[in-house]
Amino acid sequence: MRWAALLFGYAFLYTPIALLVLGSFNDSRLTTAWSGFSLRWYRALLHDPALIEAAWLSLRIAAISATGATILGTLAGLALARLGRFRGRAGFTALLAAPLVLPELLLGLALLLLFVLLERTLGWPGRGAGTVMLAHVTIGIAYVAFTVRARLAGGGTQLEQAAADLGAPPLTVLRRITLPLLAPALAAGWGLAFVLSLDDVVVASFVSGPGATTLPMLMFSTLRLGPTPVLNALATVLLALTLLLGWAAWRWRPVAGGKARH
Amino acid sequence: MIVFLPWAWLLAFVATPALILLAIALATPTDSVPPFALGWNPEPLALALTDPLYHAALGGSLRMAALTALLCLLLGYPMAMAIARAPARHRPLLRALVVLPFLTGVLLRLTAWIAILRDEGYLNAALLALGLIDAPLHLLHTEGAMLVGLAYVYLPFMVLPIEARLSAADPALAQAAADLGASPWRAFLHVTLPLSLPGVLAGVVLVAVPVSGEVVIPALLGAPESLTLGRVIWDAFFQERDWPQAAALAVVLLGLALIPLRWAKP
Predicted ipTM? Predict the structure, then answer.
């Protein structure tokens, strides 16, 4: 009975993905009728310059914004885990979690309005890949911060305390003890921020400008007209990429026997 | 010291945009670039709260959020319970299997659902092959398709908080209820369910709040005529270029989303 619920749940979650992968290798244009194994949709994918360009742009945006989110999110996570009750902690946590739980549409519209006002008063930033990166850093920070906090809550402070007692200055403690302890959380957080950036269509649609069409934006407009087998091939490539990242995150997941501290 | 940078970033890119959103909800639409003039104009907000079209959109959003949360709960609670009762060494893997699809990208999973649900899709092909139907059913672009897609995408957000609660609860309690003669159903109703309620509440909020402003899934799977707040905001902004009206509707959505967030802290 219990296992039936679980099996049904996993079947619900994984059957669509399995069919998608299967369809991408199907020679037929009609996705349901199997007419033989073929890589023609992958070849078509390689010969679609608009898709390649959008994919390349999205990968660059994802890598840069994930790095920015990891730096800021690590600082935020350190503050939450190690600073105790600092001034404004409640407000800080609320602002941090807001992009995580509120509809993404709100962040997209609000950020666009900010960018438009800034551009009008300061002449910066012009809308395009840069503004998408700023928005994606903002989305990614919370994911990194909460991953880092969970890791630190499980790790305990004894090592840092011992290093400090032995005369290590705070920056040395951070560099030699805290950051190595955090490495798995940093990798997982970076991967999450990367995947979220690569997946975002709503926020990017608002804050991007002409000439900066990200891959999700292109996929969204194509899907609205109806799916194509090329899209299946593209989705399968993206799936392989995210599975690789997911596997890496799982491999180096923060275990350390701890739960997130509240 | 270390708080300063993230604080500054969040103030600049979360708090300030929220205030600007409010300011532009009170601006006057113009034909200039950008298409608004700052000032004090309560009309967009008043319209957002009173116009019958926007009322229908609000109702559509609430209905979509509630039904999605219900579907996720019906599907996710038994899964969460099964994971929580599994041997502790298996739980991380079972949990990871719930999260993994979340990492694979929303558009990718919607591509898969479109392939399943469209007129010449897998589901219709299967039903036709089994002889259950004579002609393809129209499944895509219906409310049902949209709800299935929403439940599919948001399921992990329901399973994980419930599972966390159930795993943390002492299994001896359910055992004690059974030893004292409670039927499995009674033990569930009076012991397991109350213990898991905070997790259920967190799950409902984590699903319902983002779903209330969802745009992509309704656009790709939902009925073309269905109205939601996400859709009217999107259209007001991109089609009508009425930025103050879009901002005013967004303020309504924000207010709506903030109410349940007071109960359940993520």
Answer: 0.90
